[in-house]
Design goal:
This protein has 459 residues and is mainly β. Among the domains are: 184 residues, no CATH class; 131 residues, Immunoglobulin-like (Sandwich). The strands form 4 sheets. Strands 15, 16, 18, 22, 23, 24, 25, 26, 27, 28, 29, 30, 31 and 32 form a 14-stranded mixed β-sheet that branches. Strand 26 and strand 27 form a beta hairpin.
Length: 459
C-alpha cells in the first residue's frame, strides 16, 4: 500500500504489481545540443510476445517530442504510440476518482477505534465532495486522523513520464529494442575561467562544459556527446548576438565533426540528474599569449560634456600556434587577475560565440578607471545640399603610471565608402569600413593626448 498526503489527509492506494512493463532505462546515449535540445537513444531488452502487444517505457523525458519517437526491434513493427505525461500526485489521484467509490477511514483520537465507510467522490474542485450513503459530506482537514483508500491507480496516471507503444511482432522472445526521440529541457554551454598575467602577457584557461537538465527525468550512466553548433529547428536557428571575434580563423580543429558541427564527447559515462547543473572539464591551457588593450567607440556627432571611460579589452587567439589551440564552443569567459598578495580576483566577463580555431578575439572585461576619452564636435558646417563638414576633437587622458595605447573608433560615418572622406587628421587612421575609422593613439604615463579630424559626409 502506498500512502500520499492530500491537504493534510492521508491517501492510500491498494497496489497490484505492474504487468508487461519494462523495468526502466537501458543502455542510454544522450546527444545534447546548445539550443535546449537533446537526442536520447535508449536500448532496452524486452520480452516481446508474438502478435499484438503493448510495451511501456517509463523513464522517458517529460519534455519528449512525441512526433520524433523512433522504435526499432527485430521482427517487430509499431502500430500505435501514446505518451502519458499526466503524473501521479495526490491532487491528480483525487481528480481521477470523481465518479468512483473510495474508502474513508476515520480514527477516534480518544479510543483509537477505526471506522470505515464507502464513499462516492462527487467533485474535487478546490475541495473534495463525497456522497456517503444518503448524506453529502465535504472532506475537510479538521486535524482528525483520516485516510482515503483508493482501489487502484487510474491507468492514465503514471508515477513518471511513460511512453506506451503498441507493437506487432512476428515472433516471441527477448531481444534488444532501441527507442530514440528528441526532447527539450536539456542543453549545454561552455564556461571558461581565464587567469590573466598582465606583466607576462600570458593567461591560463580552463574550459568547462556546463550541462543542464530540466526534463523531469534522470538519465543514468549515460554515454554523453555534446554538439557545438546550432541546428535548425522548425526552419529557425538562433544566430545569437555578438561573438567578440575580431578575425575569424581558418584552422581545422583536431576534433571529430558531424556535418558542420564539432563534437565534444565526455570521456566517461555520467548520470545527468533532473534539476541538476553538471560541469565537466574539456580545455586546459597554460601560458597562452594575451594582452590588455583599451578601446573607445564614439557614435556620429556624439559630444560628451564629461570624459568617458575607455573599455578594457582582453585580446587573445584560438590558434594552434600561439593561442588556445582549439575550436571554442559558445559560452562565457570569466577573467581573473592576481592581486599583490597573489590571490586571484575577478575583473570581468564576456561571451564568445562558436569560434573556429585560429581566430583572434577581443573581450571587453570592464571600463578603465584611469583611461578616459572626451569627444567633442568643434564645428559643424553645411557645404551644399549633399555635403557637410564636421570637425572633431578627442582628448585622451591616462592616470596610470605606464603608457597605454587606445584604439579610438569613430563610427557612423556613412553607409557608402565614396560618400565619406577624412579631409584632415592629426595622426593617421585606419579605415575599418565605410562607416568607421580607428586611430591607435599612444597616451603617455600620467599624461594626455589629443586627436583632431575633419570629415566630409552626406550628413
Amino acid at each position: 500500500m502506498r500512502t500520499l498526503a492530500f491537504t493534510g489527509i492521508l491517501l492510500a492506494v491498494v497496489s497490484a504489481p505492474a504487468i508487461g512493463q519494462s523495468s526502466g532505462q537501458g543502455d542510454v546515449s544522450v546527444t545534447i545540443y546548445n539550443n535546449n535540445l537533446a537526442l536520447v537513444q535508449d536500448v532496452r531488452r524486452l520480452n516481446i510476445p508474438a502478435g499484438r502487444s503493448v510495451q511501456s517505457f517509463p523513464g522517458v523525458s517529460g519534455q519528449i517530442r512525441a512526433e520524433t519517437v523512433g522504435f526499432n526491434a527485430a521482427n517487430t513493427g509499431i502500430i500505435e504510440q501514446n505518451f502519458d505525461y499526466d503524473l501521479l500526485s495526490p491532487q491528480k489521484l483525487m481528480e481521477k476518482a470523481v465518479g468512483e467509490t473510495v474508502t474513508i477511514v476515520r480514527i477516534n483520537p480518544a479510543t483509537g477505534a477505526e471506522r470505515r465507510e464507502r464513499a462516492k467522490v462527487l467533485a474535487a474542485n478546490g475541495g473534495v465532495v463525497l456522497q456517503i450513503g444518503s448524506r453529502i459530506e465535504v472532506l475537510r482537514d479538521d486535524r482528525l486522523p483520516t485516510r482515503v483508500i483508493f482501489d487502484k491507480v487510474p491507468s492514465n496516471l503514471r508515477a513518471r513520464p511513460t511512453l506506451s507503444v503498441t507493437l506487432n511482432s512476428s515472433r516471441s522472445g527477448t531481444r534488444p529494442a532501441q527507442l530514440s526521440y528528441l526532447t527539450g529541457g536539456m542543453g549545454w554551454k561552455a564556461d571558461y575561467v581565464a587567469l590573466f598575467d598582465e606583466n607576462a602577457g600570458k593567461m591560463d584557461v580552463q574550459g568547462w562544459v556546463t550541462l543542464t537538465n530540466s526534463t523531469g527525468t534522470t538519465f543514468s550512466n549515460a554515454k554523453t556527446l555534446l554538439v557545438a553548433g546550432t541546428p535548425s529547428v522548425n526552419g529557425r536557428s538562433n544566430r545569437g548576438g555578438r561573438n567578440n571575434i575580431r578575425r575569424a580563423g581558418t584552422e581545422t580543429a583536431n576534433r571529430e565533426s558531424l556535418g558542420d558541427f564539432y563534437l565534444y564527447p565526455l570521456a566517461a559515462r555520467t548520470t545527468i540528474a533532473n534539476a541538476q547543473t553538471k560541469q565537466v572539464s574539456f580545455l586546459d591551457v597554460t601560458g597562452a599569449p594575451a594582452q590588455k588593450t583599451y578601446e573607445y567607440s564614439n557614435g556620429w556627432l556624439n559630444t560628451r560634456n564629461e570624459p568617458q571611460s575607455a573599455a578594457t579589452v582582453l585580446q587573445f587567439s584560438s590558434s594552434a600556434d600561439g593561442g588556445l589551440g582549439d575550436a571554442l564552443p559558445a559560452g562565457t569567459v570569466r577573467v581573473y587577475m592576481k592581486d599583490a598578495s597573489g590571490q586571484p580576483q575577478f575583473i570581468g566577463e564576456n561571451n564568445i560565440g562558436h569560434t573556429p580555431m585560429g581566430s583572434e578575439l577581443g573581450l571587453k572585461t570592464g571600463e578603465a578607471f584611469d583611461v578616459k576619452v572626451k569627444p567633442t564636435v568643434t564645428e559643424r558646417k553645411r557645404l551644399n545640399a549633399r555635403k557637410w563638414r564636421t570637425s572633431m576633437t578627442y582628448e585622451l587622458t591616462n592616470a596610470r603610471p605606464a603608457a597605454v595605447t587606445v584604439s579610438l573608433i569613430q563610427n557612423g560615418l556613412d553607409f557608402y565608402w565614396d560618400d565619406t572622406r577624412i579631409v584632415s587628421e592629426s595622426m593617421a587612421s585606419e579605415r575599418r569600413s565605410s562607416n568607421s575609422v580607428v586611430w591607435k593613439v599612444p597616451v603617455p604615463a600620467n599624461g594626455r593626448a589629443t586627436v583632431t579630424a575633419v570629415f566630409e559626409t552626406r550628413f
